[in-house]
Write a structure and sequence with these properties.
Blueprint (H helix, E strand, L loop, with lengths): L1 E4 L5 E4 L7 E2 L7 H15 L5 H16 L6 H24 L13 E4 L3 E5 L5 E5 L5 E4 L3 E7 L2 E6 L6 H13 L6
Antiparallel strand pairs: 1-2, 3-4, 4-5, 5-6, 7-8, 8-9
Length: 183
């Protein structure tokens, strides 16, 4: 990387650019959109755990109907515990939007995307590099591409931040080559 010094105390590194990279307009992820994306991904990944409360209710129903141990408290406990679990994660994802250490997730970035990496630029001199290996999965939403980095971290790239239809097609081709987006 080329070193471009702003002052003598803090060097700033200028990101190398690829002339064939897809460049986007600046975009900041809205906090409400983040919460909805995080909850949707949470439900998608936790779907298998829905079977636990259902199994507990069914087991209790069988035990109650046979007369071995009739009770109603298990129904209430299972429903309340399930609601509290979902509320816990909703509070966690809402809290992330308020914490200072997660503030960079909600700043305006412009993106440069190529086959090697995604460069997230805060301005011409500051930014960070994300390798494709860091992305767990991706999907195409009705208005954007969503790249999942972890349970609570996403890159949300709406179609309107791309400068042309050609850039969208190139980006989608890169995602398919990297096997992030299923064909």
């Amino acid at each position: 990387m080329a070193k471009v010094s702003v002052n003598k105390h803090q060097p700033v590194y200028q990101m190398p650019t690829n002339p064939a990279a897809v460049r986007t307009k600046k975009y900041a992820l809205p906090t409400q959109k983040y919460i909805s994306l995080a909850m949707r991904y949470f439900f998608k990944t936790q779907l298998k755990w829905v079977l636990v409360p259902v199994a507990l209710i069914l087991i209790n129903a069988v035990i109650s109907l046979t007369g071995i141990y009739p009770n109603l408290w298990i129904y209430i406990t299972v429903v309340v515990a399930s609601i509290l679990y979902v509320l816990f994660w909703l509070i966690q994802f809402t809290g992330i939007t308020q914490l200072a250490q997660y503030k960079p997730m909600f700043e305006k970035f412009s993106y440069e995307i190529d086959n090697r990496q995604i460069i997230m630029k805060l301005n011409m001199k500051e930014g960070s590099v994300m390798k494709w290996e860091q992305i767990l999965e991706g999907y195409k939403d009705k208005d954007a591409y969503v790249l999942v980095i972890s349970k609570g971290q996403f890159l949300h790239l709406p179609f309107n931040i791309f400068t042309s239809e050609h850039d969208i097609k190139v980006f989608e081709r890169i995602l398919k080559q990297k096997e992030i987006l299923k064909a």
